[in-house]
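Practice record 12: protein with flavin-adenine dinucleotide.
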Amino acid sequence: MSFEFMNPIGEILSRPALGALARHTEAPIEVRRLLASSAARLTDSSMVIEEEFHPFKDVGESRVRNPLPQPDVLHAIRSLIEEVRVTGFGPNAARFFGLLGAVMIDLSGTEAQKERVQGWVDAGLTACFAMTDRGGPLAHQWLSEISTNTPPRLTVDKVWSMNANRSDFGIMIVRQGKSMVMAPVLVPPEEFAKAETSQSGPAFLDGHLPLGDVKLTIEEASSDWVLRTGGPISSKVFLSLARPFLIQALVAHARWLEENGRLRLDTTAAAALEFLSQAARNQSAKPYFDKHSEDQAMALKWVANETWLHLVVNGLVPGQDDARDLISLSKMEGSSYRCFFEIYQRNKRFRDVAA
Ligand SMILES: Cc1cc2nc3c(=O)[nH]c(=O)nc-3n(C[C@H](O)[C@H](O)[C@H](O)COP(=O)(O)OP(=O)(O)OC[C@H]3O[C@@H](n4cnc5c(N)ncnc54)[C@H](O)[C@@H]3O)c2cc1C
């Protein structure tokens, strides 16, 4: 076994992520170092105690490939990314996440649900997407739930959802009864108006992006509000499709910050931005969902998170608010720990024990 740099544990543990990305884009040494350092730092107790640190095996090509839908709204997302390059992410963030919401409805809504949402959007209404639950990160801790009786009772207790305190309707991810199966539920404007909402913390991105908490109980909800098309895999397909576009938008934002003298790039950050830009475009161009897609999307987010943190901890971002924004971008849609841990869980049994 040969190591290119002196962090053998980090190098082994970052391999599945880099291997997944290398299926379309090979990472430069700067990015491999960045991820290996992060992996060594994020190694948790059970890993360090139980791991024998055998190298991971390449898991080979996927036998099953499902074509990825390419909804029309992706064109609008691509042109918005161009706009972020000119004006930064802040003024475009609400529209960007609105478009991602449209992708989600397109993937998991019935024709009737799509029409209903289109009507609200045409009337100028905006939505929030609320996943983070006040109860905690694990499914059994979630307080938000839709009951299985008729009519169902809907309980929502969500925190930190973008624009939730100024939205007109919502997509709420809730548990279905006592099961651990999650479902997105469309809360219509007349019901969302009854929710208790409040802003959580100061807004991000020059005041453009507030996060909000949402609390709501509806005794007589409708099972018609649940987005079921595509089954449970549709949320994985959605995240695999959406994350690379988010990364492209964030890279455009970082370049805009640099042009405006709000961050400096060192060799590592410059190489990482270049890689992220290329890898995110290659990932978005992949026309199918397969066994590598989730790892690829999470690996991309992990590299992005570490790039924003690298900029902050190396003193390359002088402004405190910009530093707070970049740290926050390293948490939203999957922190480094979440990305690292999920990729590890999916790959830990594929090892080269002889090596
Ligand atoms: C700007 C911004 C926008 C957001 N927008 C939304 C939104 O629109 N909708 C929404 O639903 N949510 C939103 N969020 C919330 C965001 O998605 C959360 O930060 C997230 O849900 C927490 O997720 P995580 O699992 O990735 O992270 P983490 O907070 O990293 O962790 C999850 C769990 O893992 C544990 N853990 C973390 N690190 C380690 C470690 N090193 N070792 C062992 N255990 C560890 C933690 O204790 C925790 O239990 C937003 C957040 C931000 C900052």
